[in-house]
Write a structure and sequence with these properties.
about 800 residues, Rossmann fold, 4 domains, 8-stranded mixed beta sheet, 5-stranded parallel beta sheet, about 45% helix
Length: about 800
Amino acid sequence: MNAGTVGFSLKTARCFICRVVTKFYQQILALAFAIDEINENSEILPNISLGFHIYDSYVDARMTYRNTLDLLFHSSRFIPNYNCGFKNNLLGVIGGLDSDTSSSMADILGLYKIPQFSYGSFEPGKNDNSKLPSFYRMVPNEALQYWGIVQLCLHFGWKWVGLLAMDNEAGEHFLQVLEPMLSQNGICSAFTERHKGQLHLMMVNELISEIMKDMSVLLENKANTIVFYGGMSNILALTTKLWFSRNVIPQIIPGYEIPAGKVWIMTVQTDFVSNAYFKMLNIQPFHDGVFHGALFFSVHSNEPLGFTEFLQNIDPLEEKNNGFVKIFWEHAFSCSFPKLGVPPRSRRQCTGEEDLESLPAPVFEMSMTGYSYGIYNAIYAVAHAFYLMYSSRSRLNMEPWLLHSFLLRVSFNNSCGDEIKFNKHGELAAGFDITNLITFLNDSYVRVNVGRLDPETASGGKFTINEDRIEWHEDFTQVPPLSVCSDQCQPGSSKKWKEGEKFCCYDCAPCAQGLVSNRRDMDYCVPCKEDHYPNEHQDQCLPKKPSFLSYTECLGMTLAALALFLAAITALVLGIFIKQRDTPIVKANNRSLTYVLLISLLLCFLCSLLFIGEPQEMTCLLQQMVFGITFSTAISSVLAKTITVVSAFTASNPGHIFRKWVGKRLAHSIVFSCSLLQVGICAFWLGISPPFPELDMNSLSEEIIVKCNEGSASMFYFVLGYMGFLASVSFSVAFLARKLPDTFNEAKFITFSMLVFGSVWLSFVPTYLSTKGKYMVTVEIFSILASSAGLLGCIFSPKCYIIILRPDLNKREQLRRRQR
């Protein structure tokens, strides 16, 4: 390869010579450092030297256009779009720091498809790749920064946030994008202010009035978190107003005091610099610590190997250095170099031995800033792309517009190990650093890396933060600090919105009965699941306990013991009657019916045990069926006994039609037919809708009722109704036959027993319907035991009295004598 020279143009966004922003001198040094590295590295561009020109924008769109055209069509006379007698091997243009300068440059450079690299922020609203095909950004897409601000607020629970943006098109775009994103994530803007970047000369009273108005909105608001979006001029104006508010106005207006404790979230556009204006007014923006603990979104930077040594080796007295270094040195160290023919100034003389490391950060930083790192990487990106183009094409055809296809394909690791490549939109495929600002009394600061924001998806990215490394402002008594319009609602309460205010401002109201809130700041109280219930404080759902009549509890044990006791008595009575089966009192009124009745009552007592314990499928099927059939059999036996008495008395007349029906035949027919009908009813019940186990979640607030669902309630009451019908018939017949002159007339006892039976079951229905859970089962068991015990006591206690205590009366002669 033949040796050649190609060039860059660095177009600064600030007038370095006129305004002397010493901090930005590092950007020029980063450019020179990268050019020197590439020229000394024979592996990147062998036999090719890179050079550069520096132009100034003067922060003026007209001058930006003029200098951009001058860069392209430089000759002895400025003639736009005409180039003669000057060969400018221009590869690309780097600039500018702010979006307005970049946009003005792109209007011209885009026409000639010359690659332009912006190392500052460029709002997405203007970054249309179809309109600016030659534009490349050395910072990530600003949309990722918006997403990161939202994630930062969500992470620390900041729901009441102030927004302060520069008063221009970029600031308006920032507010239009960020405010809806905050609202969608449950964050409110406490205020929205547009901030001018300059303080106009005015009377002292007017200046103080304007500052007090602005600062009262910013700092007296309840919001402890303020998001600031602005460039150098905006942060200079804000810093000046804050300094006046805390150091000048309190001396003029006694009692005026503005708290300093705020969390400032600074966007990537913001950078603290020092200028002559601060020195003239002796403004020390970091002495009061207003910005101490601020969180910055910064362009990711790293420290290239050798850059610190490169800065330390700068000698302003050497002739080979460019003219900027002496101007920088004089303003940075407040000294002056002697000049031929110019009398020395009053301030001290520069020796050239001053230490750059002694300068505070607002004046100059020794570590490479994000903007300088962007310039450094832009030089290397063009060098790699140019090498690819130079290797694949003729040297004679090296036009700047040919670089685009290679720039979009270039991918390399720089000396720091960071991967440098562009996405399809010409943006650097990288993320942001989150840094914490630590200020000192000597008006300097350091930034501590506390987090990272990496792009991962189209809708957002990966957010990481290390809270332990963050140093908050000393005014905060709670860390991390809160920034809310209303205090958080504690569990057990929910938000109650205030009419006419933003949704972040609310009162707290206790949850209504049956509802809970188990987290802070819940919008609404919610019901528990069916199998849970609210605790006393309504901040937690507790599992409901299953409720059924158990053998282990006192009530279940009592009923079971009572059932077994009555069953034992019934079995004892049956044994007595079997043993005394040949005695007259047992033979009276059909001995076999007595046995059937006693066995039925025994089963009635025992069937109550089916209702105790956890309901199962089989027990649910047997409960009502066994109960219905055994009771029907018992009542049928009683009815048969009653009819036997009536028929026996009527059939005693010779030739009566009932005479041939008197005896066991009639009694057995009554018991069999009446019981068979109940069996048919139960079978039909099982066929259409049988009982089944059921969990009732809603009847009781703290318990799950485990019960047997009847399946068909109408069939259940039909079974009860049929038994009631049999009891009514038996009662009616017995009542009519109570005065018949029989040897041992049972009709009186049957009448009384049916009266007890009916009273029990008539009271059962309303009581059963008015109770819930295991108490419904208790009512049914009690009704079974009470009605069965009534039958047993009323019918058999007189007979047992005679058999056991008065055996002398249990003789045929005694019965006949009583009959006569």
